[in-house]
Amino acid sequence: MSDTASPDAAVTLVAAADILAGASVGSADIAAVMALLPHRFPMLLVDRVEDIVLGRSARGIKAVSINEPFFAGHFPGRPIMPGVLIIEALAQTAGVLALKTLGEAGKGKLVYFMAIDGAKFRIPVEPGCLLDLKVEFSQNRGRISKFNGRAEINGKLAAECSFTAMIADPPAAG
Fold it and tell me: Residue 33's CB: how many other CB atoms inside 10 A?
């Protein structure tokens, strides 16, 4: 899609992507995640995305390490991953899903958070955990999508929320 394409063209391309909905495209390793998302250390919070089903769902993986910079202050003596960063990890997983669903139409696009609803935190996420980030589309309307997300550790619910995101061109430079 060219830089001069209208927002309506993006909506049409999303409709075309819906034809492919349900197609499993496997996984995205860290290199593929970094090719899709602009996030970099320390804000890249998903290590890989597996079980991608276009237009439906995906499962991200985050290996939570004691070397994460936020553990230095949250909390000394009892390191716990901040809840907002768990939600960000879910959102990044959803961003990979959304951009993969768009295919070529998603190249060069950004996924912006618009809203978070019903966030709940159940158990602490500590260093050494493998965070399982499950997201699914709950609504997909053109450039704006809603998702449900669940973060789990060994099958136990750590956090959950619903959130809305918008797919858009990056801001103009300068």
Answer: 21
What CA–CA distance (Å, rounded) separates 76 from 30? Answer: 29
| Residue 68 one-letter amino acid | E
- pLDDT tens digit sequence for 4-48: 444 444 444 444 545 455 778 889 999 999 999 999 999 999 999
Report the 10 Å Cβ neighbour count for 127: 14
Task: Write the CB contacts of 172 (distance below 8 Å, at least 6 apart in sequence).
Answer: none
Q: What pTM does this model have?
A: 0.87
HSE-CB for 123 with a 13 A CA cutoff: 12
> Which residue among the candidates 56, 74, 134, 150 is catalytic per the annotation?
74
User: Residue 39 catalytic?
Assistant: no
Residue 109 is classified by DSSP as: -
Secondary structure (H, E, C), 4-72: CCCHHHHHHHHHHHHHCCCCEEEEECHHHHHHHCCCCCCCCCCCEEEEEECCCEEEEEEECCCCCHHHH
